[in-house]
Design brief:
This protein has 18 helices and no strands. The protein is mainly α and 462 residues long. It folds into two domains: 195 residues, Clc chloride channel (Orthogonal Bundle); 194 residues, Clc chloride channel. The longest helix is centred in the first third of the chain and has 33 residues.
Length: 462
């Protein structure tokens, strides 16, 4: 059979007519070669890109954008109720509150999270709400009720100060929306899996205003493929979701007023050192997150372990209010070159620990921004020390490179890491070479030492 196929291919009998869907022009070009000889110009595979599927992609994008708006509104209400936060720096709003209020709000956060997730996990245990596991090891099946309630509780808890990322909820809801539509329109399992992945990436894209990064996240992280039938729906879904979310969310970058940094021999040299350092640290952080994620309390233990753990985080926050929330302000200050060596050192140590404590207590939330913030702080800290040897580079440049390297290595997705950081900051284009170098080295080091990502390490036990 293989011999016959090879004979037909060599004789020119094979044509684009065998492609699915078929092209409008049936005749080959003068060379007689097939379009499918380009690796990414293949047929659709099992997930046929039918008209119904494309309609589902658009609807998933619209609904994901609207849900993203709603979840961010819930987050803002919780932040305002807890610390009077409306705009500017969330960390400053926390810092201006009393010590007792910080601890009290974390206790309330723990009680809300423990009660909510206990009931969800007890009465909706038959529904799936792990999007990564559903895509990588299943057919993309997600329960909409459990996903919705889990996401709602997550945003409330984060708004009250919990140290986890806000992106997990819209990512999950984008996937759950795709799963529901796949049922409604009777899509195949392969189409459902692709649609759920597109919705997940679109959820990340719309709340952080990173449409290109969200699409690359879908392809590189969730599906592991840059084939054309993967990239096109991923781009469309992220585009539609982000555009829809502009109804209430800002079209500005997440991190404002980041300077334009200049490349230099010093920065290129540090990128090698920084990449090696961050690659090793990423392994430690990923292992820590994986360890606590698989030792979360089950059943009624959740009702006291989570509030107690959150109170510990609140007590630490008396001295370091920057650890409250997802860590966005930590990263922003590092990009602007703010913070003493002592503060940077403390935050570098504390943020991963309090995030691990929060997740280990049973909380559901993201790790994207906490890892990004940690990378930015590590970059700023090591860069500040580097300036004693080779001065002249702004500290913010080291922080930007550190963030990209940490995210790229931790996700085991260097392209997504680079694009996401550049879209989040609208900066980094002038230092793209050291950004690429550090991210490449960090990702390679993490892959060589261990190979887990911050998502695969959190997968539930089989």
């Amino acid at each position: 059979m293989a011999f016959i196929k090879r004979l037909l291919r060599n004789s020119g009998a094979e044509s684009e007519r065998q492609r699915v869907p078929q092209p409008m022009i049936k005749r080959r070009i003068a060379s007689g070669r097939g379009a499918m000889e380009q690796p990414n110009v293949t047929d659709d595979g099992e997930a046929k890109l039918t008209a119904v599927f494309w309609c589902c992609v658009v609807v998933t994008g619209v609904l994901t954008g609207l849900i993203g708006d709603g979840l961010m509104a819930v987050l803002k209400v919780a932040e305002h109720a807890a610390f009077g936060y409306q705009h500017g720096s969330y960390a400053q709003a926390v810092a201006q509150s009393s010590d007792g209020r910080r601890v009290l709000m974390l206790l309330v956060s723990g009680l809300v999270g423990a009660g909510g997730w206990y009931l969800i996990r007890r009465y909706l245990s038959h529904e799936h709400a792990e999007i990564d596991d559903a895509i990588w090891n299943g057919d993309g099946e997600l329960g909409f009720r459990r996903s919705s309630l889990t996401s709602l509780v997550s945003e409330i808890v984060i708004g009250l100060g919990a140290s986890v990322g806000r992106e997990a909820a819209p990512k999950l809801m984008g996937g759950a929306t795709g799963s529901t539509l796949a049922h409604l329109f009777k899509l195949s399992p392969a189409q459902k899996r692709l649609l759920v992945a597109c919705g997940g990436g679109a959820g990340l894209a719309c709340v952080y205003n990173v449409p290109l990064g969200g699409a690359i996240f879908t392809a590189e992280v969730l599906l592991g493929s840059f084939a054309l039938p993967t990239v096109m729906p991923a781009l469309l879904c992220s585009l539609v979701a982000t555009g829809t979310a502009y109804l209430t969310l800002s079209a500005r970058p997440t991190y404002l007023d980041i300077p334009t940094f200049a490349n230099s021999p010093s920065l290129m040299t540090w990128s090698v050192v920084g990449g090696l350092l961050i690659g090793v640290l990423a392994v430690l952080y990923i292992r820590l997150i994986g360890w606590v994620s698989n030792r979360r309390p089950k059943g009624a233990r959740l009702l006291w372990v989570m509030p107690l753990s959150f109170v510990v985080v609140g007590v630490i926050g008396i001295w370091y209010p920057q650890i409250f929330g997802n860590g966005k302000d930590m990263a922003h200050d590092a990009f602007l070159g703010l913070g003493s060596l002592g503060l940077l050192f403390a935050l570098w140590m504390l943020k991963p620990l309090v995030t691990a404590l929060t997740l280990g207590s049973g909380a559901a939330g993201g790790v994207f921004t906490p890892f990004l913030a940690t990378g930015a702080v590590v970059g700023a800290l090591s860069g500040s020390l580097w300036l004693h040897v080779w001065p002249g580079t702004p500290v913010g440049a080291f922080a930007l490179i550190g963030a990209a390297a940490m995210i790229g290595a931790s996700m085991q997705a260097p392209l997504a890491g680079l694009v996401l950081v550049m879209e989040l900051t609208h900066s980094g284009f002038t230092i793209v070479l050291p950004l690429m170098l550090a991210t490449l080295i960090a990702t390679a080091v993490t892959r060589s030492i261990d190979g887990y990502s911050m998502y695969s390490a959190r997968l539930p036990r089989k």
